[in-house]
Amino acid sequence: MSRVFNFSAGPAALPLDVLEKIRDDIPDWQNTGMSVMEVSHRGKHFVELAARSEANVRELLEIPADYSVLFPQGGATLQMAMAPLNLADRGDTVDYVVTGSWGKKAAGEATKFCKVNVAADASDKKFTYIPDESSWQRSDNAAYLHYTPNETIAGVEFHFVPGGDVPLVADMSSTLLSRPIDVSRFGVIYAGAQKNIGPAGLTLVIVRNDLLDKARPNNAHLMTWKSYAESDSMTNTPPTFAWYVADLVFQHLKDRGGLGAVADVNRRKASKLYAAIDDSGFYSNPVNKNCRSWMNVPFILADDSLDAKFLEESQAAGLTNLKGHRSVGGMRASIYNAVSEEAVDALIGFMAEFEKANG
Ligand SMILES: *Cc1c(COP(=O)(O)O)cnc(C)c1O
Question: How far apart are CA 290 and CA 271, in angstroms?
Fold first, then answer.
């Protein structure tokens, strides 16, 4: 067996010990004589898994008791529609802070369901900064403020939580579980699983309970957070395999010492990679230093005619999925929880050698 260092933005790397456990579990999960994919989601073993995974998410993120933890399908993109449908009526105004492609997409989706006020928009500088909070044009009575704490494509991350009284709705797809957060500051947090949680197909939603009663009365059952809250996310058949893997990832993060310990490693990984970029005359990262992402690190080469060579040679060196998003160009290293410090060191070493040979 040979494993590469995988810098994919998503679906992304999973911890090797989790993959090995899956391999061992598959034919006969928990002495059921079946794989987890073949058991009833309402049977004892899976119900226990669901309860344990929720308890572990609560413990990892220190989620207050007045929040529900939901496991729907549909990814983060479905939540971009579910947020307005669960929190606002058609005539209501909602505020969006757009600091990247995903926030823009979320705002676009919400315009189908209510009145969207874009309170701030960083597209004028190609999503390389966060407009100063004092300049945001917030509405007087927004039903909520939506923002994207980590923009996966341009690599822009909030290192603060916005203020104000309205519920904050946060798309944390590419940052949730990378460090401790204060959940009580948020109304709703949502994340597609395939970055830091597990396989695609599962979504994690954390919602403050008083917000569960704001859904539109004619909302489809599966589009209503309260349906999931009232059924332990067994509203219909959940994505059992994806949920099982997420459960293993939560246990893995606890075994690593929890999110404080995970954050220490993530901070170190990001700061050494940015330092390597900034200290070279060959690589650069265009994002303001006060909002650089810990998870997604885009960088460009001084001469973009070398991009193909960089990708080919890094691939040959066992460093994979470094091609930048087509909207940004260059390279992007996604260094989620499951990407080890060793992988980041290997990337930095490769970059130095490539610069020496070609710079
Ligand atoms: C990946 C990503 C999405 C899209 O997630 P899906 O699960 O594919 O819907 C949305 N927002 C952010 C911030 C992402 O990183």
Answer: 12
